[in-house]
Design a protein that fits this description.
Largest sheet: none
Structural class: mainly alpha
Order of helices and strands: HHHHHHHHHHHHHHHHHHHHH
């Protein structure tokens, strides 16, 4: 049988024009909801900790806080490739629809936490893990469903809208978390329920398989080595942020070293296994495509920079800038989200436009330019004083959002357009793994750099500042001994650590009214921490700029043939792609 040459617009059944917009609407809602839930908890953590009666500065509770943030990202990073492969085998729509149901069910149970204290935190962490499983099923298959539904000349636009929804949900969650948690902390989970129920039912009724399933078997050894290896590595990064044996961080903890070494060995074994099995979990042959390989490497670098920057900016605003400008600690989480709106606006403006332009101009130039602008915004932020003028800050974060939008849509289009139709599910999962792993790693990398910067001068600065206000030397040394990671999380949680730590000692009652007012006011701790914090900021933003430069180089190396409509496949690939694109009779 002779296949007709591939044309610019593949042959599609009548009604597909309407179907593609249905697929776009549903998948956009899915990735938005999944991303929203990744960040909405970040801002709502103060209300959640109060709701389950947890002291955020108690040493043992740092782990709960870290896992509330990291657990969701870790599960998504580990599972997206597996569920993407399951989508190729058993149907992308089937796995996607099941993910919506799992995500919604977990959201319901999260809002009915029956416990207090540590048990209440464990309930939330456990169901967040289940929720992340559903989110992985959604994100791993949404890009593949869109790539199947849209013709090549519109694919960049569709993927751009999807990416804008994903990252837009991440930033909108920062504001929504503050608003909803001001009413009730459970509301941050309630908001998912009506949306999840509606779109779950709509997905089951309207979405359909448009590409033939390839069947096959599960690569059990590949799945086990990948999941355990990546989990061990990310768990080690999380543990490395926690104090250990008198050290400010846990990188000297033997357990951390064992987890990192074991995780990397298992990931190396995974690569060996994938080269030997007949039905691998991932197709390493996809890395022979320059656009796929360098697009994912560029995406990983940008993801690390973007994820770390988000946490650093929240801490900067909540812990220092907002208190210095008269905002009460309990109000800083909400206002931090509001003051970061230019970042979201920049991304929302640039994402769809860059996706539209990538369909006509190609991905390479837009993605590379976006990465360079991303790095330039880091250099601009690095030059700001701690007590900055907001208009300049707003312009810089808006440029950062525009840069992320310029990069994300063309880069996703380039990656997904470089693989054959039968591999789009696993390719989408691999792309999401790079992105989610980057976000998880970024927390460990950026926090480690920040904590290292704080540890050099913060204890001495705090001790001297407390003694100047009449606090006894032994009490001042005790308070100053608070691990820097606790100070960072206190700022993130909207807690005044000085008042919180001095009250149990009784030292405040022996001070004058003026001294008490100074110590418990909104300016004392931010003023003390500003110098050490700025030293850490310079290191963090310099590292972010370096990552952006590496992303730009990787983006250039993807080659010039990344414009989907200009791609000329080999005859055998064209035949396979056309055959797979036809609907089953």
């Amino acid at each position: 049988m002779t296949n007709a040459p591939r044309t610019r617009t593949p042959r599609r059944p009548v009604g597909d024009d309407r179907y593609k917009w249905t697929a776009l609407t549903n998948t956009t809602a899915a990735v938005f909801m999944s991303a929203l839930d990744g960040s909405i908890v970040l801002i709502a953590l103060p209300a959640i900790f109060r709701g389950v009666h947890l002291d955020p500065l108690a040493p043992g509770n740092i782990a709960y806080l870290l896992w509330m943030i990291m657990g969701y990202r870790l599960v998504q990073a580990v599972l997206v490739v597996t569920v993407g492969r399951l989508g190729d085998m058993y149907g992308r729509v089937r796995i996607y629809n099941s993910g919506f149901a799992v995500f919604t069910f977990a959201s319901i149970l999260l809002s009915f936490d029956p416990f207090d204290g540590g048990h209440g935190a464990m309930w939330l962490i456990a169901w967040r893990v289940v929720q992340a499983v559903g989110g992985s099923m959604l994100t791993a298959n949404s890009a593949a469903i869109l790539t199947d539904a849209f013709p090549e000349e519109q694919r960049g636009f569709a993927l751009g809208i999807n990416q804008v929804a994903a990252l837009g949900g991440m930033f909108i969650g920062l504001v929504a978390g503050g608003l909803l948690s001001a009413w009730d902390w459970r509301a941050v989970f309630w908001v998912n329920v009506p949306v999840g129920v509606f779109f779950t039912l709509w997905a089951y009724r309207t979405l359909r398989e448009t590409v033939r399933r390839d069947g096959g078997r599960i690569d059990w050894w590949g799945n086990i080595t990948f999941a355990v290896g990546l989990s061990a590595t990310l768990i080690a990064i999380t543990a490395g942020l926690q104090p250990y044996d008198g050290h400010t961080m846990g990188w000297t903890n033997p357990l951390v070293d064992v987890l990192i070494a074991g995780g990397l060995l298992l990931l190396a074994a995974f690569v060996v296994i994938e080269n030997r099995v007949s039905a691998p979990m991932i197709q390493l042959s996809l890395f022979r495509q320059r656009a796929f390989t360098f697009g994912n490497l560029a995406g990983l670098a940008i993801s690390i920079g973007r994820g770390g920057m988000q946490f650093v900016l929240i801490i900067w605003l909540q812990g220092i800038w907002l208190p210095l400008h008269g905002y009460h600690y309990s109000d800083t989480p909400l206002w931090a989200g509001i003051f970061m709106l230019p970042l979201t606006a920049g991304f929302l403006a640039a994402g769809p436009v860059s996706g539209y332009l990538s369909d006509r101009l190609g991905s390479r130039g837009l993605a590379t330019g976006g990465a360079l602008l991303f790095g330039a915004s880091f250099l601009g932020l690095m030059s700001l004083p701690i007590d900055f003028g907001y208009p300049v800050f707003a312009v810089l974060i808006a440029l950062n959002g525009i840069a992320s939008g310029m990069f994300a849509s063309p880069n996703s289009s380039s990656i997904m357009g470089s693989v054959p139709a039968r591999s789009r599910g696993v390719a989408s999962g691999m792309r999401a793994t790079f992105q989610n792993s980057g976000t998880a790693v970024s927390i460990g990398v950026f926090f480690s750099l920040m904590i290292a910067g704080l540890a050099r001068s913060l204890p001495h600065t705090l001790t001297a500042g407390l003694q100047q206000q009449g606090v006894p030397a032994h009490v001042a040394a005790q308070v100053a001994g608070l691990p820097p990671v606790s100070s960072l999380f206190a700022a993130q949680l909207g807690v005044n650590p000085i008042q919180h730590l001095l009250q149990p000692t009784g030292a405040l009652t022996h001070l004058t009214a003026t001294q008490q007012q100074t110590l418990t006011g909104s300016e004392f701790f931010p003023t003390l921490i500003s110098g050490p914090f700025h030293s850490g900021l310079v290191i963090v933003f310099a590292f972010g700029a370096t990552l952006a430069l590496l992303a730009a180089i990787a983006s250039l190396l993807r080659g010039t043939g990344t414009r989907p409509t200009a791609r000329t496949p080999a005859p055998r690939e064209a035949a396979t792609g056309d055959a797979l694109a036809r609907p089953e009779k």
